[in-house]
Amino acid sequence: MAEPYRRTWMLPQSFALDSGRSIERPVTAFETWGEPRGDNAILLTTGLSPSAHAARHGPEDDPGWWEDMVGPGKPLDTERWFVVCCNVLGGCHGSTGPSSPDPKTGQPYALDFPIVTLRDMMRLQHELLAHLKVERLHAVIGSSMGGMLALEYAALFPEAVDRLIAISASGMTHPFAIALRHVQRRAVMLDPAWRGGRYYEIGQPAAGLSLAREIGTITYRSDIEWTNRFGRAWQSGDLFDFSGRFEIESYLQHQGEKYPQSYDANSYLYLSRAMDLHDLGRGRGGLIEGVRRIRSRALLIGVTTDVLIPTFEIDELAEAFVQSGNPAELHVLDIETGHDSFLIHPDAFGPPIAEFLGS
Fold first, then answer.
1. Which of 120, 306, 331, 340 is catalytic?
2. N or C: less crowded end of the chain, CB within 10 Å?
3. pLDDT (0 to 100) of residue 321
4. In the CATH scheme, what is the homologous superfamily, with its name and number, of domain 7-174+279-358?
């Protein structure tokens, strides 16, 4: 289906990156909901995979990735707020990334695309907001990688945002998550079809990307949910043959196989590395000093069963807010669905978010 509500904007000059390299006139794909009124803008930041399409714009539109949270009368009430959501720099849903043509060659950047950081992504989105004549945000909100992005935005532009909501996001990436993403990238890069990242004319490394997605999917939920949802149910095949499989195996394989149909393998490498590099304290004197840059009121939300960003990491971040002199409001939700709970339980996440935005 066409994407009639997706808009693109090109920065009219070169964009300098944290690495010291630059990108010529990068493009940002974005969507908006509601009407701007000067003080009602909300920047909604995305996780690794989503596009800018967070919600429907009308009954004829496709559902978005946060459909139950964005729209008239919903927690991000688009009759009250002007919501902006962007596909990140390095992505593959309309914004400049490794699959985009390099102006120097006309061919996809592939691994000639420079390493980008979450700070790079937020500085470019800040430029877009200036283009949209949004000088100050009522709030920046995001979950998972989006929560990390929201934290970075509030630290980069402390005078430009009133409220910060970071869901299932830490102040820095811990070794467990780095190790997982290392294995996921290895799965992609060891696929012979990856060809050093230059696969665009022949098709991407679907097997490697599928395996990476399966590994990731395991961490997006919890053992409690897997047990309650699948148990040890056997799906099909001979019990004593590798052709047979449990229902959980079938589910993971399905999730993995459909992912390459909508996502670019090189973008997966670049954005997963950007998450590894996440550290609010980098170049700022440590985590507490990084958090001290944030002037906005902050709401931190964690989930008890999250294995990817466990609650001790949320507590660590909350303590950094306390030590910085700007205590955050902390909500830890006891939900069995783990890291992806924000996509599944609007009933649990919606009320505290709506209250915090409206307070």
1. 306
2. N
3. 98
4. Alpha/Beta hydrolase fold, catalytic domain (3.40.50.1820)
The first and second tokens of residue 242, run together, are 């590798």
Question: Among 94, 96, 69, which Cα is nearest to 83's?
Answer: 69
Domain boundaries, the chain: 7-174+279-358, 177-272
What whole-number distance in Å separates Cα of residue 207 and Cα of residue 210? 5
Which pair of tokens denotes residue 193? 């079809």
pLDDT at 2: 47
**Nearest partner of 299 among 161, 123, 135, 156, judged by Cα:** 161
Write down the pLDDT at residue 243: 86
Look at residues 169, 215, 164 and name the one whose alpha carbon lies nearest to residue 188.
215
CATH code: domain 177-272 is 1.10.1740.110
Whole-number Å distance between alpha carbons of 346 and 168: 14
User: Catalytic pick from 144, 170, 324, 341?
Assistant: 144
Query: DSSP E strands: which ranges in the chain?
Result: 7-10, 15-16, 22-23, 27-33, 41-45, 70-71, 76-77, 82-86, 137-143, 161-167, 234-236, 245-246, 297-303, 329-333
List, in sequence order, every residue forming a beta bridge with 44; answer none if it has no partner. Answer: 85, 141
Catalytically annotated residue among 53, 93, 278, 339: 339
Q: Is 306 a catalytic residue?
A: yes
143 forms beta bridges with: 167
How many C-beta atoms surround the C-beta of residue 269 within 10 A?
Answer: 24
What's the per-residue H, E or C state across 45-83?
Answer: ECCCCCCCCCCCCCCCCCCCCCCCCEECCCCEECCCCEE
In sequence order, the 6+-apart residues with CB closer than 8 A to the CB of 254 are none
Query: What whole-number distance in Å separates Cα of residue 250 and Cα of residue 230?
Result: 10
The share of the chain scoring above pLDDT 90, in percent, equals 95
Cβ pair 83, 90 in contact under 8 A: no
Contacts of 156 (CB under 8 A, 6+ apart): 119, 122, 123, 126, 293
